[in-house]
Amino acid sequence: MKKLVILGGGYGGLALIQELFSGYLPPDVEVILVDRMPYQGLKTEYYALAAGTVSDVSVRVKFPQYEGLRILYGEVTEIDLENKRVLMLNDDPIEYDQLAIALGCTDRYHGVPGAEEYTCSLQSFAAARETYVRLNNLRPYSRVHIIGGGLSGIELAADLRESRPDLNIAILDRGQRVLSSFPNRLSAYIHRWFEDHNVEIHNGVSVSRVEQDAVFNLEEPIETDIAVWTAGIQPVKVVQELDLPKDRSGRILLNEWYQVPSHPEVYVIGDCASLPFVPSAQAAGAQAEQVGNVLKALWRNDTPKVHPLKLKGTLGSLGKHAGFGLMGSTSVIGRVPRILKSGVLWKSKRNY
Fold first, then answer.
1. From residue 108, how far is each of 148, 230, 231, 324 by CA, in Å?
2. What is the DSSP string of 86-111?
């Protein structure tokens, strides 16, 4: 019996499972999913969990059940590529014939002193819940600083404004405008929305260190009651520790079939893989489908055919009634992209 072990039950891991079980699966292949939790956490919605605008149940999805799929729960501590096994915390190692690494990402603090110790995170279900507790327990008119003006920071600030209208909320961003990689029109719309809803945006902020009650812009202290870090991500520690060629972001370099060149039995999916896209749930899902096709072709002794990944676009929310998006080169703003994003979320909850 051949063992395909999939590490991580997020967007990439579950999209791979869905692709594999959508067609013929060889009877001599066992698929094993390994995850810490008994459900998928919808990570794109962790900002809302932290802000308190959704319950934790609404961002959990049950794992699928298929004949031939086994689910093991536990925490991965090391991947032993040479001996083809996965080491687990307080549990026996898991041996594999083929391996798919889809473990996702964690915060990247860029060497900023105090950032890890004194800021809140959105990068795991537990961290988002802890962030919610801390934000919920703030006294009225407390100061909240969100470090990073990317998608997560913007969505958190907007939902937190709806959840806690009494708080003083500010975004600290290095660039001259939020969402600097998007068209000016989108950034301008977001700036206007935040002005109308009394959320401050401080551009050109270079965070040099973080203390318990202050964020430093170089040597200038910005007093705060809570700081939330949304200023960068990197692959999880287990992937960081793999002695493999990686890109500048720490993501593993792969061949055209998304295999590790020195270990072709190992596939890497999503935030841990060096792809020509910003890490996202959509990219992880699209790539995972192709990995599924590669595996099925190899099991048939065929040559896999891989096409360039194509993404549909990006959608973001500003609370429950407004949003923004980029579909190809077309910018969309207002209520329509918010409705579209709600539809995408509804579909993702019912995929399995």
1. 12, 9, 7, 26
2. EEETTEEEEE-SEEEE---EEE--TT
Burial label, 26 (beta-carbon count in 10 A; 0-12, 13-18, 19+) = exposed
CATH fold, domain 2-36+74-106+233-299, is FAD/NAD(P)-binding domain (3.50.50)
Q: What is the pLDDT of residues 150-193, one digit of tens each?
A: 999 999 999 999 999 999 999 999 999 999 888 999 999 999 99
The label of the residue with tokens 């969402």 reads 179
Of 129, 187, 190, 181, nearest to 157 (Cα)?
Answer: 190
Average pLDDT of the residues in 329-337: 90
Tell me the domain boundaries of the chain. 2-36+74-106+233-299, 110-231
CATH superfamily for 110-231 is FAD/NAD(P)-binding domain (3.50.50.60)
Give tens-digit pLDDT for 104-147. 999 999 999 999 999 999 999 999 999 999 999 999 999 999 99
Per-residue model confidence (pLDDT) at position 351: 60
